[in-house]
Amino acid sequence: MKKNFVRVMIILLVxxxxxxxxxxxxxxxxxxxxxINHTGYQDPQYWDTPNQEISSIPxxxxxxxxxSTDHEDGSFSAKLESKHIVLPPLDVPGVxxxxxxxxxxxxxxxxxxxxxxISDNPTHLKGFYKYFPVGGxxxxxxxxxxxxxxxxxxxxxxxxxxxxxxxxxxxxxxAWINYDSIAVPDSxxxxxxxxxxxxxxxxxxxYIDNISLDYTVGIDRQNPQTGIEIYxxxxxxxxxxxxxxxxxxxxxxCLYDMMGRDVARVRPKSLKKDxxxxxxxxxxxxxxxxxxxxxxxxxxxxxxxNSR
Length: 308
Known about the structure:
- Strands 7, 10, 12, 13, 15 and 16 form a six-stranded antiparallel β-sheet that branches. The protein has a five-stranded antiparallel β-sheet with strand order 3-4-17-11-14, with no helix packed on it. The chain has a four-stranded antiparallel β-sheet with strand order 18-19-20-23, with no helix packed on it.
- 4% of the residues lie in helices and 51% in strands.
- It is mainly beta.
- The protein starts with a helix and ends with a strand.
- The chain folds into two domains: 5-214, Jelly Rolls; 220-305, Immunoglobulin-like (Sandwich), CATH 2.60.40.3080.
């Protein structure tokens, strides 16, 4: 009997933390320089792995995440290796997560709780990796952002990077974080897995190092006094608008083509610092005028919408 570890991990990628931090969020121990010693294994500080449960299996105990001196920067990186355990029969990928990972070997079930607090809107998950897949395997590095109101937890955004190619040199990756809501998240989880296929393939190895959140939000930057920025996201056919007003006043956003036609209009209420998205899937490439009205002041910006 084999358990689809990866699919369960993806479904259970949830966080339940409501603590807030200020400023741009730093991924804790994203450089994997600090490791905690346990009996028979090590885990990177702030990250959880299957090592505790897997190493405790009688006779066949092992680890799937180890500290490696093969690094992109600093002294160490995290080495994630997929392995097959004979008894009980279990294919386990190397996994690291900012949540709390629990594995019940007797029932072959997995749960993830916890996470890391966040109170801003990063645009990308970035880092460095090396990858040595076996038999068409693929890796996955993902981030999920969430917001809890009362007892309801909503997914605000998610992003991921995946590849099945052999990458023998340290290579940067960048995963665009796709927002389904303009709300500010209060918690996040990041996880990486060496095998993202239906069954982990023994021998597949993923190295990761210097994981970080990026806040580069614009190919065009508005007047710094207004704090307005615009980003054309070709992956989702949306214009993402970022703004930070000191006063909580009504904001209206209008988008016009060069013939003066109103092609998009958004009127969110009482927003201080947030983002909004405008779908441009039906718009032609060309020059457009963006008008944002705030506190009886109007800010205009001409920009070029590139071909999709």
